[in-house]
C-alpha cells in the first residue's frame, strides 16, 4: 500500500510559477502502475500561472479551494471549489487566483507529466 501525505510532500515552484507537490507519478514510484500523474497545486491571492501548454498530454484540474479564472485555448471561465476542468493536449492554458485566500487544485495529467512535454506559450 502506498499512502502519501500532502503535509509531508516536498513542494517546488513549477516552470509556470505554480506551487506544486507531486503526489503520485508512475515513473517515480515503483509500487504504482497507472497512466497518469497526480499533483497538488496552489496559487496565492492575485497570483497566476504563466501561459503554457502540454504538447501531448491532456490534463484535468479539480478545484479544491478558492476561486479563480481559467483560460484554455482562448476561452475563459470562472472556476470555484468542486469543479473539474478538462484541458486538451496542446491547448494554451493558465489559471489566475481571483479570491482573497489560496486557490488549491489537483492536476491529473495523462499520460503522466514530463518536463519535456511542458512548454511556455
Question: Based on CA inertia axes, which overall geometry fits?
Answer: globular
CATH topology, anyone?
A: Jelly Rolls
Radius of gyration: 14 Å
Supply the CATH class: Mainly Beta
According to DSSP, the number of beta strands is 11
Structural class from helices and strands?
mainly beta
Query: Which superfamily, in CATH terms, is the homologous superfamily?
Result: Jelly Rolls
Low-confidence stretches: none
Strand order of the largest sheet: 1-2-3-10-5-8
Chain-averaged pLDDT: 95
Distance between the termini: 39 Å
Helical percentage:
under 10%
Tally of discrete structural domains = 1
Question: What portion of residues belong to β-strands?
Answer: over 45%
Taking the sheet with the most strands, its summary is: 6 strands, antiparallel
CATH architecture descriptor text = Sandwich
Listing every helix as H and every strand as E from the N terminus to the C terminus, the arrangement reads EEEEEEEEEEE
